[in-house]
Amino acid sequence: MLELADGTVSVTRGDRNGLAYGLVAMTVGGGTRLWQAMSWRFFPEDFRMASEYGRPEASTLADWPISYDDLAPYYDRVEWELGVAGDGTGVLGARTPRTRGYPMPALPSDSTRDVLAGAAGRLGWGSTAIPFAINSVPRAGRAACVRCSQCIGHACPVDAKNGTHNTFLPRALATGRTDLITASQVVEIVHDGRGRASGVRLITESESGPVETTVRADVVVVSAGALETPRLLLASGLGNDWVGRNHHSHAGAFAVARESPEGAKTDLGPGHSVATLDFVHRDHEGWGGGVLYDLIPPYPLARATAAGNDPEVGYGAAHKAAMRRRNLPLGAMSMVQEIPHEFTRITLDPTLVDRHGMPALRARYAPHPASQEAADYMKVHARRWIEEAGGRRVTALAGAGMPQGSEHSAGTVRFGTDPAVAACDERGLLFGTDNVYVADASLHPTNGGFNPGLTVMANSLRVGRLLAERW
Length: 471
Ligand SMILES: Cc1cc2nc3c(=O)[nH]c(=O)nc-3n(C[C@H](O)[C@H](O)[C@H](O)COP(=O)(O)OP(=O)(O)OC[C@H]3O[C@@H](n4cnc5c(N)ncnc54)[C@H](O)[C@@H]3O)c2cc1C
Ligand code: SF4
Hints:
Blueprint: E1 2-4, E2 9-10, E3 20-23, H1 31-34, H2 49-53, H3 68-83, H4 91-95, H5 111-122, E4 128-129, H6 168-174, E5 184-191, E6 197-206, E7 209-216, E8 220-222, H7 225-235, E9 250-259, E10 274-276, E11 290-294, H8 300-308, H9 316-325, E12 331-337, E13 345-353, E14 359-365, H10 369-388, E15 392-399, E16 436-438, H11 453-470
Parallel strand pairs: 1-14, 8-16
Antiparallel strand pairs: 1-2, 4-10, 5-6, 6-7, 9-12, 9-15, 10-11, 11-12, 13-14
Helix pairs in contact: 3-11, 8-9
Iron/sulfur cluster (SF4) is lined by residues 134, 145-151, 156-158, 160-161, 269-270.
């Protein structure tokens, strides 16, 4: 259910629209199963957005209760345990200080990186290879990337892409101290009404139909993502008034050339290759801006279909020749800071329920004008980059956010030091409870100018470490 500030309300059914919640992945490993695997650290400034920029009217902008330095050891641990390939010596080493480099060298360069790095240099900008949680060399008993270019939304055909499903989870299972229950939905956190949880109620799909079970627990850690975590807490009657508030993901800016230099855009995987970080917290402009990187090429199937639909081209050898001739469009995109809006909030729908009787999620959304400002700021740079690289007839777009939520949704159970303005304390403990923790993107008060996956994992490891010390 989507509710806009102008009073518009629309129902989007998840079973009839695969993009109802953006690209959120409901599977073992969550988003990291199907992600592109870009693995950025947030910049130190990303943890203190309100202090750096002030809190704009009608926003819920806030600082994180922890700093980059608090998270740095956990970033390091994720990069090495998950397996990230990158170059930590240049701008990444300078602006996200680190004690050692990445465990694998960056993926090899390609024509897109060469062309766009050259253009960035002529504009006086820096550039870097993108760090990916992808094996650039064989590692952890799994192959290196064969550069098939179908990372986003697909399992990797050679298992070179690293996610929690092929790293942390199997290692946890191998200890013998972890049980993984699949094909199940937690529908309620069972508690005594005074802040003490005793377990969870879940429904498991089986061949004979849904089976309900209650699992007893001393501690409950909720990691259902920034849309489902607040929904579960609200449905269970847990947490304060900040549960569900502060929902945001990223604003976006894009530039695509309709005429691109021959061969400038490669179709080698993983699709993105090169980035400039020159507009991340540059001179306090554009609300911290964001990372700018090359746009992925259209997928082979989309290109093949387009070629096949052309009666001049047909199928077989002619089709293959046409596919080889097709020049790919050069483009750039930015993950721009989204400034959270007071109106924007996840609530429960008063009447609509899912197939298990759990109240449906209602997303209230209004874009904050500062998000559009930030996106417009990055649009200018995206266009300049592509034009400098030789792109012609460039179309540029900028959007403030993603109304119904997305794979980058964040902030809905944000952590802080004060229950008057946050839902969890800095350890991830839900205010008003003794033993309910949150460890996912819901905790992020702000979501940086980067894809957030590495930060979600680093902070979750941090919450886990503190929890282990307490229990
Ligand atoms: C296609 C795609 C591409 C992406 N590319 C990148 C990228 O390149 N770089 C990057 O940094 N980030 C990327 N992301 C985003 C990244 O994956 C997310 O930021 C990250 O996974 C969020 O972690 P999370 O733990 O908050 O939620 P999720 O990863 O969404 O995990 C939530 C888990 O909870 C489960 N769940 C939900 N509700 C329930 C319930 N009631 N009961 C039981 N289980 C439940 C879900 O099945 C899921 O396994 C991408 C995501 C997608 C989907
Ligand atoms: S480009 Fe292909 S082979 Fe490489 S990690 Fe992505 S899906 Fe795997």
